[in-house]
Amino acid sequence: MKVLVTGAAGFIGSNLVHYLTKERPSWKVTALDLLTYAGNLKNISSLVESGQVRFERLDITDDKVIDGLFEREKYDLVFHLAAESHVDRSILSAREFVSTNVTGTQVLLDAAYKHKTGRFVHISTDEVYGSLGPTGAFVETTPLDPTSPYAASKAASDLMVLAFCKTHKFNGSVTRCTNNYGFYHFPEKLIPLFITNAMEGKKLPLYGDGMNVRSWLFVTDHCDALLRVAEKGRAGEVYNIGGNSEAELPNKEVTRMILELLGKPADLVQQVGDRPAHDRRYAVDTTKIKDELGWTPKTPFNEGLARTVAWYQENREWWGEIKSGAYLSFYEKNYANR
Ligand code: NAD
Ligand code: TDX
Fold first, then answer.
1. Pairing verdict, β 217-218 and 180-181
2. What Å distances lie between residue 33 and 9, 311, 319, CA to CA?
3. Which structural domain, as residue segments, surrounds residue 98?
4. Helix, strand, coil: what percent of the chain each, to 5?
């Protein structure tokens, strides 16, 4: 079984590559990544160095190069995760989001269709549905109503995958998950940013009133769901993937739990200006993936968060290098006028 994982040096992609080598050791996995600011080869270097995984540094928007790869390799399965993934960056500039998330997906679809790839799993997000009020949950048929340039670009890419399924009888599925957390999470996102800022004694910039709600999904549980969708999911279908009900929490509470785990004081929290069009609440109904594929999330939030905090404590060098590099200029721009 020849498998391609795009975005394999990013947060979820690298966790997926580790998961696949454990759960499906006979599969031949190619890890593709451009290594943008968010990609870090160290996340998978042990597997690349041991020869378990082959690494290709390629740009998914480069149609000639991607066509050449698919011509050579004849993949049975593609997990497509490569993307620009940070909402705040898409507010500062949307261009890369359209290029990577929309054009990049189209380039991969063209190559996969032309070279008869067996199966294509497109990893998307619950953000394509927009924002919820205090109750209810998104189902797979909820109309798309993205509010950020990031979410709009993901919605466009989802529709392109589903259109290929309809037009070409392409064997693709789209997954829409809630917020992931876990190891190798780039420290621009809420949980790793707040863990590492607190460890450094820096302020935790909480947007608005801190009452925006996210449904947290431990990344390994997400990988389990993705493997099930790849192996047993139906073509042309969307599958929501979400955290446990107890993992649906306001940012303020997640922040309190992080500070408690680290033994740091509450006055590190600094309420700052809100994110424009800040979605109030996300939650997904996971009945479809539970009934069809037998998937439910296994990791309770307090356990997953404690393991995540411990990982950042044990891997200070990993995030220290990131936070002292080019990342600094984004941090200054994003938080300057709040
Ligand atoms: P990430 O930013 O950590 O990783 C993205 C990876 O894509 C990086 O390694 C980057 O180098 C690579 N990449 C970017 N542009 C590329 C290009 N042109 N060619 C090749 N590689 C390129 O993101 P993540 O959090 O791991 O998210 C992975 C996927 O899951 C994304 O599609 C994202 O939209 C989706 N998603 C993430 C979450 C979450 O909570 N993190 C939730 C829902 C959906
Ligand atoms: O400094 C911050 N302060 C803050 O209050 C940051 C970075 C975030 N927040 C808030 C905004 C959100 O309500 O925390 C919440 C989580 O924010 P992010 O970590 O930026 O994630 P989110 O915007 O919810 O999007 C994430 O989940 C869905 C991923 O980044 C997306 O790629 C995914 O599609």
1. parallel
2. 6, 24, 19
3. 2-185+217-245+281-301
4. 50, 15, 35
C-alpha 49/C-alpha 55 separation (Å) is: 10
Distance CA 331, CA 39 (A): 17
Task: List the residue whose alpha carbon is closest to atom 42 of ligand 1.
Answer: 179
Angle value at C-alpha 102, between 101 and 107, nearest 5 degrees? 100
Residues lower than pLDDT 70 in the chain: none
Alpha carbon of 89 to ligand 1 centroid (Å): 13
pTM of the predicted model as reported, rounded to 2 decimal places: 0.98
Per-residue tokens: 55: 């690494």
User: What tokens appear for 329 in the block?
Assistant: 């200029």
Whether ligand 2 lies within 6 angstroms of the CB of 251 is answered as yes
Q: How far is the CA of 191 from the centre of ligand 2 (A)?
A: 8
Token representation of residue 295: 């998937």
| CATH code for the domain of 20 | 3.40.50.720
Evaluate whether residue 237 is within a structural domain.
yes
Enter the tokens of residue 38.
Answer: 């968010």
Does residue 85 fall inside a structural domain? yes
Query: Concatenated DSSP letters for 207-259?
Result: ETTS--EEE-EEHHHHHHHHHHHHHHPPTT-EEEE---GGGEEEHHHHHHHHH
| CB of residue 198 inside a 6 A radius of ligand 1 | no
Ligand index nearest the alpha carbon of residue 79: 1
